[in-house]
Amino acid sequence: MSKAIIRLAVPDMILSPAPQGSAATATFRVEALHKSFGADPVLKGINLSVQRSEMVFVLGPSGSGKSTMLRCCNRLEEPDAGEIFIQGDRLTGPGVDLNKMRQRIGIVFQSFNLYPHLSALGNVTLALRKVQKMPREKARVAGLEALDRVGLSDRARHYPSQLSGGQQQRVAIARALALNPTVMLFDEPTSALDPELVGDVLDVMRDMKRQGMTMVVVSHEMKFARDAADRVIFMDDGLIVEEGPPEQIFGDPQHNRTRAFLSRFHE
Amino acid sequence: MLDQFFNLAIMAKALPLVLTGLGMTLLICAVVIPLGALGGLLAALGSVSESRALRWLTIGFIDFFRAVPPLVLLIFIYAGLPFAGISMSPFMAVTIGFFLNNSAYFAEIFRAGLLSVPKGQVEAARSTGLGQRDTLIWVTLPQATRNVLPDLLSNVVEVVKLTSLASVVSLGEMLHAAGMVRSITYNASPLVLAAGIYLLLLWPVIRLIGRFERRLAS
Amino acid sequence: MERFIDTFFNAAVLARYAPAILEGALVTVLLSLLIVMAGTVLGSGLACLRAYRIKPVSILIVVFADMLRALPPLVLILLAFFGLPNVGIVLSSFMVLFVVLTLVLAAFAEEIVWAGITATPKGQWEAARSTGLSFTRALIFVVLPQAVRMVIPPLTNRAIAITKMTALGMVIGVPDILGQATTAQSFSANASPLTLAAIAYVILFLPFVIASRWLEARFAPPAA
User: Fold this and answer.
1) What is the C-alpha separation between A53 and A210, in angstroms, rounded?
2) Which parts of chain A fold into alpha helices (H)?
3) What are phi and psi of C188, to 5 degrees?
4) Is B191 in contact with C79 (CB distance < 8 Å)?
5) Domains parsed from chain B with CATH numbers
6) In B, residues 37-96, which contact C (CB 8 Å cutoff)?
7) Residue A136 Cα to chain centre, angstroms
8) Rg of chain C over CA atoms, in angstroms?
9) ipTM of the predicted structure?
10) What is the pTM of this model?
């Protein structure tokens, strides 16, 4: 898939306010996020605004806090300080219906975390039925539709153990998609996959972008970042060191630490 | 030898009484196994809860009743409590004693099961908006139970065997019935008959557990 | 409250029967040690024997292990105690308890150790045999040491459960803790000896229960 086609597929009017679009119009926004594990500060004040239909790629060495930031975004990890907004609604602070808010933020894990005791369809429909209280038949239809979007409607009755790693990860994506989230977070979605299975998952992510999904992706797939991302963020030591369009980050990084990191990926 | 252990005439005479005893054995099981499993599940949930006080309390309960022999517990309840004015039927004493003992063992098994479910499963569920209770019911418990199914079944076998202790407090279960006929006939055949029925009941389960274990291991 | 204390913690009764309970505790400890040693050795031996996969021998071992795991120990104790004298074998109640519980522990130990042996990867056998070790040496020096890790937690649990059954000796008149306590209770018409017995068991077994919890945490594979 060439870069040009992707660019065409995304309406210009959505792209134009990005990449540094204002915080006020952001679909998803994180302010002054801090997190420590014991005495060990992992996030030291992260500010991030993601515009509608934007794909933001987060790079950084291991231990830089990328995953923790992502996990703080839906409060799987409780941030020590900072605020999180989705479409202007605050996710942090007391009195928030966290379960309701989480349905607006999909997350895809490195290790899939599919429920082994449920079929692919069961995985996708569980939250629809138990949280959204959808009747069985309606949930089934919605679940099959979500599986269809990742190209796996023919695997609905399969159990995770009967699926390849790539298929499992696509089911995990469908599980998040089925809830119609406003934003999708990806935590190294291809790191646990055999190389030949990575492509399928990336294709699904490309499709989602084309359909206008807002995404934050933590990953080491540099080529994919270069092709598909609207904006690239480089994190190190709990802070955002540098951000910009992929051409700039990959072509002309401003910061020494970014340069040092990227040089390790050039063959 | 044959006459002392496998005397068919005596066995035939003992059979009706032993079968009545079997009915009582099964009744005890029907009461004590669900109660113990439920108590064990609750204690297990307490033992992995976020509250430190609740954790210590439940683990203390579990360890205490794993340290006390069930027969000591049973005799304490049946023969000790009446001195304090608390008298109860043998059946009640057996139910309470075995409930406490069983809960501790079931709790330990459920606890292991709950701890065996990877953290990512809970995170995945919570990330889709499932609350704590729904996550437990639909995601954690089914996997926890499946992971320790052989141990749960083994414990059921242990409970069935445990019911034989009820004979000590003169509850007319199978061993008590067989023992009575033995003491009248001075012949061990009724005990062999009871043993045979236990085998008939439990051997298939033990084989089944072995099958489950091999399947889980592969 | 006063009645409660008088019934369960009567100082005079406690003092009078404490020596007897202590004697009982010695019997319980001695029996437990003997049972654990003999049962574990016998069970491990049977598991090793089964590793040679000689069909008739394996079948005998499996039948033995299944029967002793399926039968309630109290049934076996009564059978041995009341049945054996009728055919001319007279064992003391102490011996009956020791033999029966040793066999029961051996049956469980055999299954546990056997599971440990079969869980050792085939590659370990192959590596050992490829360096010229005989089957027996491979079993003793390569496979068993690895199986031990898997085996210790469940074996500890089982050993505790079975040594606790020494309390069943009371039924056939073994002067162990419970035996002494029930005698004392009927003489004193007071429940304090039973309290004392329960406390004695907790003191004896709780450390092992806690240790088994620790062993399990240490040897268990961590959940991913």
Assistant:
1) 9
2) 3-9, 12-15, 66-73, 98-102, 120-130, 136-149, 165-177, 195-210, 222-228, 246-251, 256-263
3) -90, -10
4) yes
5) 2-217 (1.10.3720.10)
6) 59, 63-64, 66-73, 75-76, 79-81, 83-85
7) 28
8) 21
9) 0.89
10) 0.85
Tokens found for residue B194: 């009871």
Class of domain C19-218: mainly alpha
pLDDT mean over B25-40: 95
Query: Any chain B CB within 8 A of the CB of A103?
Result: yes
Q: What are phi and psi of A45, to 5 degrees?
A: 110, 80
Model confidence at A112: pLDDT above 50: yes
What are A260's strand-pairing partners? none
Helices (H), B117-188: 119-127, 132-135, 141-147, 149-162, 174-185
**Which sequence spans correspond to the domains of chain C?**
19-218
Name the residue facing C74 among B83, B175, B213 (closest C-beta).
B175
Phi-psi region of C173 (alpha: psi -120 to 50; beta: other; left: phi over 0): left
> What percentage of chain A exceeds 90 in pLDDT?
74
The sign of the CA dihedral A97, A100, A105, A109 is positive
Count CB neighbours of A52 within 10 A: 18
- C140/C148 Cα distance (integer angstroms): 11
Q: What is the predicted pLDDT for the residue at C192?
A: 87
| Residue A48: exposure state from Cβ atoms within 10 A (0-12, 13-18, ≥19) | buried
Please give the Cα distance from A115 to B140 (Å, whole number): 9
Cβ atoms of C182 and B69 closer than 8 Å: no
Q: Which residues of C touch B18 (CB under 8 A)?
A: none
* 3-state secondary structure at position A75: coil
Q: For C66-108, how does the pLDDT look when each residue is reduced to its tens digit (9 = 90+)?
A: 999 999 999 999 999 988 888 888 899 999 999 999 999 999 9
